[in-house]
Amino acid sequence: MSRKSSSPSSKARFGAIGFTLMAVLLALVSAFLLARLMKGRGYDRDSLQKIVVAKNKLNPGARISSDQLQMKLWPKKSIPEGAFLSLKKLLASDKKVPLQTIMAGEPIISGRLSHPKKGSGMAPLVPKNLRAFPVKIDRWVAASRMLYPGAFVDVMGTVKLETQGYTSRLILQGVKVLAVNGAVDGVSFTRNAGKKKKRNVRRSISVATLLLTPEQSEELALATRIGKIDFVLRGASDGQNVDTEGVTLSKLFRVPVAEEVDEEEEPVVLAKPERRAERKRSSRTSRRARQLKRRPIRSRRSARKQPSKPAVVTVGGAE
């Protein structure tokens, strides 16, 4: 009886031990596979490195302070080139002015910073030997988003000449847009456009800032004084300039040039002073008529203001 009773208990004991060993083996395999998976996706702690990131939004042209920065773990394989590995190294660097908007949590890169001695605002964004030239543009041009920071445009000038009449021609080609309404990058340009959309409805003029050479600045300054300028957007990969002759009204509508007026014949221009004299006489006549219409009304008002005289009654020839 004892042998029969011991055999089932021994079998149960061996079964429990085998089940435990199998569970331990499965746990080890699962842990190994999970570690491989996490390491492949970048969850390994050994591959992380602390770098300097922006604690708050950093505006372009404003100097960076220590309270706007923080250290954050970043995968070593994904650390961008030029990132700072310590706050001390960044604060000791000469470059402390962002050239573009840096969002919160974004790494600080040396290539996107400028020297404070170059100035603030747009001054650090102007390369050497170039100039920033502000130009007035229509509001609907800015609203079309055709002009944006970083775009390349051609500038077209339209003037009225004495010999050819209205003439349009490309005066500048491949000019870079530095800013639109003060926004120097796409982030600030998009956000400012959304916030100030209602305010700009009443405004009819916006401002675009172009990067020009000193010679181009002189040409554009003259074109804006004597005529009107327009902008033509270029493709990002199009760097070829085209030599154009411009277009006049006669070329545009294929109208033959008018013949010169004979010196013996009286030009039509002489009739303009007579028309002006007639307009002056008619304006004087209409002004005189309006004054005559207003006079009776003024006389009535003055009569009301004057005190009434007492009536004089004569009795027997005496007052």
Brief digest:
With 319 residues, this protein is α+β, with helices and mostly antiparallel strands. Helices cover 35% and strands 21% of the residues. The chain is built from seven helices and ten strands.
Task: Give a verbal description of the structure.
This protein is an alpha+beta fold. Among the domains are: 48-118, Type Iii Antifreeze Protein Isoform Hplc 12 (Alpha-Beta Complex); 126-252, no CATH class. It has helices at 2-40, 87-91, 139-143, 186-195, 214-226, 249-252, 271-305, and strands spanning 48-54, 69-75, 97-98, 113-114, 131-138, 152-161, 165-180, 205-212, 228-233, 247-248. The strands form three sheets. Strands 5, 6, 7, 8, 9 and 10 form a six-stranded antiparallel sheet that branches. The longest helix has 39 residues, at 2-40. The model is unreliable at 265-272 and 313-319 (pLDDT under 50).
Task: Give the arrangement of secondary structure elements.
Elements lengths: L1 H39 L7 E7 L14 E7 L11 H5 L5 E2 L14 E2 L16 E8 H5 L8 E10 L3 E16 L5 H10 L9 E8 L1 H13 L1 E6 L13 E2 H4 L18 H35 L14
Antiparallel strand pairs: 1-2, 3-4, 5-8, 6-7, 6-9, 7-8, 7-10
Give keywords.
35% helix; alpha+beta; two-stranded antiparallel sheet; 319 residues; Type Iii Antifreeze Protein Isoform Hplc 12; disordered C terminus; 10 strands
The DSSP helix count reads 7
The percent range for strand residues is 15-25%
H/E series, N to C?
Answer: HEEHEEEHEEHEHEEHH
User: Structural class, from helix and strand content?
Assistant: alpha+beta
Low-confidence stretches: 265-272, 313-319
The major β-sheet equals:
6 strands, antiparallel
Average pLDDT over all residues: 77
Distance from first to last alpha carbon = 170 Å
Question: How helical, in percent, are the residues?
Answer: 25-40%
- Overall outline: elongated
Gyration radius, rounded: 42 Å
Number of strands: 10
